[in-house]
Amino acid sequence: MIRVLLIDDQPLIRSGFRALLEAEDDIEVVAEAGDGSDGLALARQHLPDLALVDIQMPVVDGIEATRRIAADPTLAGVHVVVLTNYGLDEYVFHALRAGAAGFLVKDIQPEDFLHAVRVAARGDALLAPSITRKLIDRYVTQPPHDHAGTALTQLTNREREAVTLVAQGLGNDQIAARMVISPLTAKTHINRAMSKLHARDRAQLVVFAYESGLVTPRDA
């Protein structure tokens, strides 16, 4: 069962998402919150698999809520997906940097929304390569961030290669084929890179790959 926490300041939006999610046999909405502060408290109480977080909210907005969830070691198993009315914008990029696994636009089709919930709940990033390129082109400061370049030295050559392929949008099986290794070994390289870089998920690996200069928009 996928356990979901809804964090949105609009009751009508929350009720719509709840109705859609709870019509599914494998999804349960465990709680709702109207702002990020209450959402964080409920996340600690219920430990959901997935938090759907509106970006723009009163008291504590979605970016700060995402940052606080990502920084709390007791919430390491909570995957955050941010919800936006506007699509690709600076708020989305900052949410990804804060630790979100991806984002969804609120006018998404119901079947696509449900698929995205299942993808995010199992730990995969909701980040298509085309979306990544647009975000990076628009919002990543050049030249590469010094702190990201320093962190890059912690990775082995194979881990760097794996992170590069993650940033290019490849899945574990594709990465394994490209590196001529088993999917399990590919996953191991990715997990070790995530651990060394303190990345919660693949989305943060993607952001890191661009900010460190390991990958540029031309490469993806």
UniProtKB/TrEMBL annotation:
GO terms for molecular function: DNA binding. Residues 148-213 form the HTH luxR-type domain. Residues 3-121 form the Response regulatory domain. The modification 4-aspartylphosphate is found at residue 54. SMART domains: HTH_LUXR, REC. It comes from the Bacteria. Keywords: DNA-binding, Phosphoprotein, Transcription, Transcription regulation. InterPro entries: CheY-like_superfamily (IPR011006), NreC/VraR/RcsB-like_REC (IPR058245), Sig_transdc_resp-reg_C-effctor (IPR016032), Sig_transdc_resp-reg_receiver (IPR001789), Tscrpt_reg_LuxR_C (IPR000792), WalR-like (IPR039420). Signal peptide: none annotated. This is DNA-binding NarL/FixJ family response regulator.
